[in-house]
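Researcher: Go.
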Amino acid sequence: MPIYLASESELNIGQAVVLEAPAQEGHFVVVFEDDEGTGYFYALDTQAPGNPIQDALHIYDVSDVTDRSKPVNIKIGWSMDHQKAVLLINGSPHAIYDFASKQGCCRTGFPPPISTSWSVNGHDWKDTMLELFA
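Model: Structure:
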């Protein structure tokens, strides 16, 4: 998967953290947040009027992670065209954003779309979105 690494951190699930990863070019940013209860991945457009958050993807509920006492490696990578971002946990993709098509997907498929312009068909995981990084 050809990506450039924008952010990396080791953490324990349930440890409060915010990892921002701006694209090297353009005005898109993705953010991973663990608020000690849940993990979410956000798509931001810093040029959008009003709230820059365009979409949100649920990654996990801390209480559901059985091995949460073990540290995990979180990486956020961007495609070479600066239009697609992927969230990797211990090297495995858990969420993807495609800013060009305004679509996000995650392993949990949650939540329902929060906007009428992003992920209008939902957040269900699509292996085909991995091809965006080929």
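Model: The longest strand covers residues 4-12.
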